[in-house]
Amino acid sequence: MSAIATELPAAELSTGAGLPKWLAPLILVAFAYTVVPLIGGSYLFEAILLPFLALSLAGVGLNLLTGYAGQVSLGSAAFMAAGAFAAYNFNLRIEGLPLVASIILSGLVAAAIGIVFGLPSLRLRGFYLAVSTLAAQFFVQWALTKFSWFSNDSASGVIDAPRLVIAGFEFEGAVGRYLFALTVVVILTFLAYRLVESQTGRNFIAIRDNETAARIIGIPVLKTKLLAFAISSFIIGVAGVIWAFAYLRTVEPAGFNLDRSFQILFIIIIGGLASIRGAFLGAALIVVFPLALSRLGNFLLGDVFDSGVLDMSQRIVLGALIILFLILEPDGLVALWDRVRRRLLLAWQSS
Question: Rounded to two decimals, what is the model's pTM?
């Protein structure tokens, strides 16, 4: 119930300020489409915004499964890889297939794999379910490495991503790829929001809170669990397409390793479970934190702070942050953000 309460302050703040809930997201999206492409440099798009958008979308997908439906998964990177490689092969092997169709079909492939590896959720829960979903990570990465057909028989296993062309318009350069990724993320995030507000979303929450009670009141538990795995894997698979096609510009199994799965899990823990906004806040921290830590380390320690020290420091600090959030603020950054907004609103009303 605490996760549901996390979403309430935002609605209360919007009502208290006399503004509709949709206004702030609309302004933010308009700013992202109109202002950011004009003022942003190549580094901003390549190093920050593109990975942020891909990881945010993956976080939204995993939050639907873990935050809302209560099903733990450690195989997110496997579904990202399935989506990326499926989109590449659809684009390569079906002549004339539009890119949008390739993306949708790749999401469906990831959804099908998600259902297969979600079947243990019908019997397992918690830690045991997490271990079973971990099998997806190892199996998918093994299959992509073992069978060169997936990478078009490339000797290195690394292949160039296709051009991003939709309806004759090519998304070229960093700005074009950013607009492509932004459009996909906005559409799927809106659909995810509509889902959690629907009866299906309420069924997810009911199963998460008390599976036995949900079954008693007539919710089809088994069907709903598999639906959660399918929808989550679909969104994560499309996030994999953005990661490979728009950000990395290559499709390779190494880009979807176990570290990526844990990274997405950390995003929803730090950002806030059962919160669409939390996925974006958590992804922002995960993307910006290593860059800020690198600048700070180089400023304080100079050449001593090399890539090895950076990687070790990043893991230590992130681990400490996760422990602190789990102990002090289980609802994550979204709860902190709502608390700050509430205090600012109260201060503004009292002045």
Answer: 0.91
> Cα–Cα distances in Å, from 294 out to 4, 287, 312?
36, 12, 12
Q: Write out pLDDT tens, residues 303-329.
A: 776 777 777 887 888 888 888 888 888
Which residues, 6 or more positions from 159, have their beta carbon under 8 angstroms from its beta carbon?
88, 151, 152, 250, 251, 252
Are 237 and 229 in contact, with CB atoms under 8 Å apart?
A: no
DSSP H/E element including 289: helix 276-301
Q: Measure the CA angle with vertex 247, ends 78 and 334; round to 5°.
A: 75
Q: Tell me the C-alpha to C-alpha distance, in Å, between residue 78 and each of 184, 232, 243, 285.
A: 20, 12, 13, 23
Cα separation of 81 and 205, whole Å?
Answer: 28
Residues 226 and 115: their CA atoms lie apart, in Å, by: 6
In this structure, what token pair is assigned to residue 344?
């600012």
Checking if the pLDDT of 155 tops 80, the result is no
- Tens digits of residue pLDDT in 41-97: 999 999 999 999 999 999 999 999 999 999 999 999 999 999 999 999 999 999 999
Rounded mean pLDDT of the chain? 89
For residues 272 and 281, is the Cβ–Cβ distance under 8 A?
yes
Angle at Cα 97 formed by Cα 93 and Cα 103, nearest 5°?
95
Whether the Cβ atoms of residue 252 and residue 157 lie closer than 8 Å to each other: yes
